[in-house]
Model the fold of this input.
Amino acid sequence: MYQYPLEIKKGHLYITVGNKSWLIDTGSPVSFSKHDLMIGERLYPLSEKDSKKFPEELTDLIGHHTDGLLGNNVIREHDVLLDLAAGQMTFSEDHISANGLILKTELVSGIPCIDVGIKGKNYRMFFDTGAQISYFTQDHNLDYPEAGDFQDFYPFFGEFETKTYLVKVILNENLRTLRFGVFPLLLNMAIVSLKIEGIIGLELIQGRKLLLSYRRNMMILS
Done:
């Protein structure tokens, strides 16, 4: 079991490994960096991949120095506990026990997908810690209270602005209110092609603990 400092910087989730700052992004199937990543005694060679400029682009977009993006190719090999209240991220090759709201997950194109209930209908949505807020596809009926405009970006798709809405969602019979925006056109096309109807973002786990266990097809929010 290995633990690393975890914190939110500029609205995004980071861990520090050695002296390097890594963006935690469950919305990415793979990791990117010009540096290799060492989790415990395991080395993830990343530096030879064609991603030399990617961390610099993230640094510019987020406004916080970013050495790399840590994606699901690393997360899926462990049970991972994100404890935002304690500021700690734990990786374990064994199962981690946790109590709380159990959400079934499946990996779709390497990204975790969960069921989300809204106004009596069920939607398949990605869970993406790289997104500050949640998102609907463009065909969704936006009959919700407005919550202002939001400036955001998505890697490889660039910056965009969206109107946002306060939406009551049901997660395994548990009611939450989350802020939703709407995908820009190109990103919308990419998401729809995967038969996905939205994204649940980092807001869901602010101040909480989240266990990710892709090996057991679940996450537990407490």
Summary: The helical segments are 54-62, 72-75, 185-192. The CA atoms of residues 149 and 163 lie 4 Å apart. The longest strand covers residues 158-171. The mean pLDDT is 92.
